[in-house]
Specification:
2 copies of one chain form a homodimer.
Chain A: H1 2-29, E1 32-38, H2 44-55, E2 61-67, H3 72-80, E3 84-88, H4 97-104, E4 114-118, E5 135-141, H5 148-151, H6 153-157, E6 161-165, H7 170-173, H8 177-187, E7 193-195, H9 204-218
Parallel strand pairs in A: 1-4, 1-5, 2-3, 2-4, 5-6, 6-7
Chain lengths: 219, 219
């Protein structure tokens, strides 16, 4: 067991070293980098598509898409009009700093203002791995139920912002926004919660505003 | 790296050994054991609550609930009327054979016909760990999108049955059952897909029938 712990420690140390290098590169290039995390199907890609549409004339964006398999998401993001690199993890349950480093070979950071890293759909493992990002965004969605912040606290604890997507389905799913906000406060009182629907557009402008502020803070 | 691989191999071997022991205990007690896997919020607990209500007079059931934190699910299952043991994994992304072995100290296997193991909400990691179960069930839900079998193939590949929950939300979410079934066939052609809604009860009897058949096959 002691041997295992020592090895794990070495792997984590190597991962953190790569993440620090990534952060230095991102800082040097002067761009805002966001790490998006969520359960499968919460709407990360749809959020990104709509964000690209709304900010296309204003900022230069690119994305890295993490999935176990397929290039569905990268194709969607490219169709929305920005450069995108797909990473397939095979069975891997989260993106690693090593994978992001390799993906950067295919993106021109100096031609960008914002980089979105869409992590593997998994509300557990991605939260444990620094990718050199400036901001972490957890995307939650109403059909998942309002108690997810209590049941998956680590992802929320390490987030800088929660996007609550699919608020057009609040009634159909019996979701309580009040209960959700209470659970979020229970984990991290100051964590902002942005309620929106990528489908109807309701609440979307607050997300765009949040991105603008984050960019101003980092840039 | 070679050292890491050797250690990983030893950990996997130990896990498989515990799973084989569990399977032998389950066989000896003559009960059907199901390992339920899904994304967070797909509806595993609700499926279980409704299953308990429908089969209460027919079979003796119990459940083991896996969550990072809280005992929300165990309380719901006990309220539905069966014994239930909550496992909190801390940060752990899946249930282990070791955790299930410990939970069995609190359940009387000889007084049971069916045991449900509700895994941690995660469509990636639980698929890699045998818990000695007889059947693996993946619960998918329409708001997650119809391409999940392609994007998370391992969970589907190792499943014996897919429950497609929340079919009352097909229209509201723009979900294509046809596309979902095509993606399932692409991963595992013979995998049965049971479409149902825990909310409306539509399609639920096919799931109960599937459980009865599985019990007859195992018992």
């Amino acid at each position: 067991m002691a041997k295992r712990v020592r090895l794990e420690r070495r792997i984590v140390a190597e991962s953190d070293r790569l993440a620090r290098r990534l952060r230095a590169r991102f800082r040097k290039a002067g761009l805002l980098v966001l790490n998006l995390m969520s359960s499968p199907g919460a709407g990360k890609t749809t959020l990104l598509e709509e964000t690209v549409r709304r900010m296309a004339g204003e900022v230069r964006m690119a994305a890295i898409e993490g999935d176990l398999a397929t290039d569905h998401d990268a194709r969607r993001i490219r169709a929305a009009g920005i450069p995108c690199r797909q990473i397939n993890t095979g069975g891997g349950c989260h993106l690693s700093a090593h994978q992001v480093t390799e993906a950067l070979d295919h993106l021109d950071l100096d031609a960008l203002d914002m980089l979105f890293i869409e992590n593997v759909g998994n509300l557990v493992c991605p939260a444990g791995f620094d990718l050199g990002e400036d901001r972490r965004v957890v995307v939650s969605s109403t059909p998942e139920g309002d108690d997810k912040p209590a049941k998956y606290p680590v992802a929320f604890l390490r987030a800088d912002c929660v996007v609550l997507n699919k608020i057009d389905l609040v009634e159909a799913t019996g979701f309580s926004i009040r209960a959700f906000r209470r659970y979020v406060r229970g984990v991290k009182p100051a964590l902002p919660v942005l309620e929106l629907s990528c489908r109807t557009g309701e609440g979307f402008s607050a997300w765009i505003e949040w991105l603008r502020r984050a960019r101003a803070e980092v840039g």
